[in-house]
Each structure stands twice: as structure tokens, then as C-alpha cells.
């Protein structure tokens, strides 16, 4: 039944055949696997730089040569292939193509060909026009109001009548450049005349809008007042790293900050401002009921350093606008005086021999030689205390200044200044002459403080305006009103 075989114990008969068959099948499978392995070892792309001269190398060379020959055989010829040329387009075809292209947009949207009229088309004797035209124009710098209307298509006579109507409500010069004019032009009887103005509307001023309407053939002006809240805008904050940048971040306009810094510089050193100091600005501000806002100049500037609070209010004194502190003291000026006449120094201050009296005495001023009739100006701001004949001084003018100081101008040929008049530094007060005890045309200039003569060449003065009386009362009332404004307006 069983026998010893190469596979161990095997059965006889049919069983043995079956085992042998299975053994043969195993032998055939191994042969197939070895064939596949040989195929995998076949290199179709031979490296012609290695194993030169071997059978594999020659096979690769033959393959490469065959491929190159095939490519060369299949390559196209070097001669161009002849083909038919399209005929040139005619005029009608070019117009048709142009109508389908983008080019018409560059020629005013011309669409090319147009359909020819047929017997059903009737030519119009006159093309219709719109019954109304709405136009927006802008008033330019130095532009005339009537001129803007005529440029928009309004007739000259009607433009002038419209300008006269507007001028009855507001000066045409007060209308700001850049103002937008909205116009409606109506139907005209024929093309030879300008269109009539049916309506004109614009903002004449911040608080006033104007309309010109046509009623029953006549132009009528309609004024539309606009409610405006003029509560000033108050801005506060800490100086921090920089006063200008901190104020700008808080919302203050640049011009108002520049004015504020200049005002501070007249009362303290800007370099002394610390980072923890607090600034306080009040600026002009207007809010219209229509929503627009307008910011103006600086009205008040304050600085709180903790130990000291500086409050400055803009005030007009004697026609001159300056910044006064809370006590009513204005800008302080320190420095020398202006030279009262264009001339040369002929005699200094001190004891000298008088050329007319014939003896030595104190010369209480300085003399400037100058041609007859040369203008004499005030050396500094002041008020005329005396103007007239003054003994040996001849025609003489004396000015009073702050700090109980006076300046005198003698030997004038003619006096211009009048007693009680306020004069500015550099203002004309008279002309050079030789009146009184004088040997020739010159100006005798003298300076007194508390009644004692001073050398004009060495005087340095400090001058500040001081409010008093009713003016000081109004000043403090205005300051109190502004300080009651809340932050943010």
C-alpha cells in the first residue's frame, strides 16, 4: 500500500500517480518563475557607456541606431507646405468685421455699418430734444457766479438776473470756491436761443441754502436758513511723548495746535513741558442741522502741570489780537527798541559841552544826524503823552510805555502824532527838523524810567499788555463761559 519515496512514505497505485502529478506541477511552476525573473533581468535601455563590446552593449547600440533612423525617416521636410491664400476683404466686409470688433469703442462707440433706409422710413425735419436737462457746475477760484451759469448753458441776461437775485441774499464774494451748483434747464422754443433756467440750488453759506425757481415765467429766490450749533469743541489729554502728536491723536486740528504752541511760547518755555502735563484746547466748532461740521481757530489754550495751571484766552486789545492769561496780562516782549530815524549817531548820552549854551551839562539822550524831513518812527509800542512845543526841545513828542517808561523825540520839523493816540513800533510820528535849541537838522532821542533819564543805547525793556476795568470784566466773563464747555463739545 505504501512505499518509501523521495517525498517520504507514499501510497501505491492511483495514489502514487496523484502524488507524482502534484510533484510535477510543482516543478513546472518553478520553471515559470525562473522565466519571469529572466525577463526582469532584461535591460531594454542599455547604458552604452558601460560594458563596451559585450553582447548586451551591441544589442543596445543596434536598438539606438534603429530608433534614430526611424526618427530621421519620419521627420518632415524643410520646405514649407504650399496652401491657398484668403482673398483680401472688400470695403463692406471690412466694415462688417470692424462692427464685430472692439475697435469701435475707441472711436466714440461707432458700431460700423448702419442699415440703409427703406421706403418705409420718413426723414425727420427736426430731431426732438429733452424737455429738461439737469446740470451740476462748480464755482472755481476767482470765478464769476454769472460766468458759471453761462458756461452751463444759461443765457447771459438770465444769468445776470440770477446773480443779482443771489446777491440780494448773500454777497457773491462770500460764496466759497468749490461750491456745487445744481441746475435744471427747461425747454427752449428753438435751437437758436439758450435754455431757460428752471431751478438753481446751492449752499451759499454754512448756515444758508438758496434756491432760484421759475414761477409763472419769473425767477424767484427762496432762502432756506439752516440751524447751526456753535458750541466750541473742547479737547483735553496728557502730553505723553509729544504735545503735538498727543493733541492730534485727541482730535485737535493741526493749525489750532500750532497756534497753541506759539501762545504757550510767549508765556513759558515749551521745553519745560513734561510728559505728565495735561493740555486743554477749545476751538471754534459749528454743527449744522444737515449734518455738516466746520472747525475754526483756537479760542483757548490751557496747560496743567500739577503745581501750576496756565490759562490763555485770545483777546483783541487796541485793535491787536493777542493771548492773555487768566489775570488779563498779555504777551510779554523783551528786547531793544527800534532805531527811531535812519541817520548816524552825532552825540552820545552823558555830560557834554552844549554848543549853543556854551557850558557843560548833562545830555539826557542821544542825537542822530539825518536830512531835513526824514521820517521819525516810534521806537516801541506806546501811547502819545505829549505832542507840541517843548522849550529847548522845539517840536517834541513823548510816548508812554508799560513799566512806567517814556521815550522822547525832539527838534521835529512837523509832528504827526496826536495826544492820546496809540502807536505801534515803527509807526510814523513826525519828521526831522531843527526847532528849539538846535544847530542843524537832527533827532534828539531820550528814554526815561520813573522820571530818571536812561541811556537809550543800553536800554532793554520788558513790555506786556494789561487789561483793566470793563474790558477785564468782559475778558473774565468770556473765559468763564469757555471753561464751562464740556470735553467733546
Structural class: alpha+beta
| CATH structural architecture of the domain at 344-459 | Distorted Sandwich
Query: Average pLDDT, to the nearest integer?
Result: 82
Percent of residues in β-strands: 25-35%
Keywords: Hydrolase, Signal
Protein name: M23 family metallopeptidase
EC number: 3.4.-.-
GO molecular function: hydrolase activity
What does this structure look like?
The chain is an alpha+beta fold and 489 residues long. Among the domains are: 133-225, Nuclear Transport Factor 2, Chain: A; 233-331, Nuclear Transport Factor 2, Chain: A (Roll), CATH 3.10.450.350; 344-459, Glucose Permease (Domain IIA). Helix content is 23%, strand content 34%. The chain contains 8 helices and 27 strands. Strands 15, 18, 19, 20, 21, 22, 23, 24, 25 and 26 form a 10-stranded antiparallel beta sheet that branches. Strands 8, 9, 10, 11, 12 and 13 form a 6-stranded antiparallel beta sheet that branches. α4 runs antiparallel to α5 (156-167). The chain starts with a strand and ends in a 6-residue tail after the last helix. One of its GO terms (molecular function) is hydrolase activity. Residues 361-456 form the M23ase beta-sheet core domain. InterPro entries: Cell_wall_metabolism_enzyme (IPR050570), Dup_hybrid_motif (IPR011055), M23ase_b-sheet_dom (IPR016047). This is M23 family metallopeptidase.
Brief overview, please?
It contains eight helices and 27 strands. With 489 residues, the chain is α+β, with helices and mostly antiparallel strands.
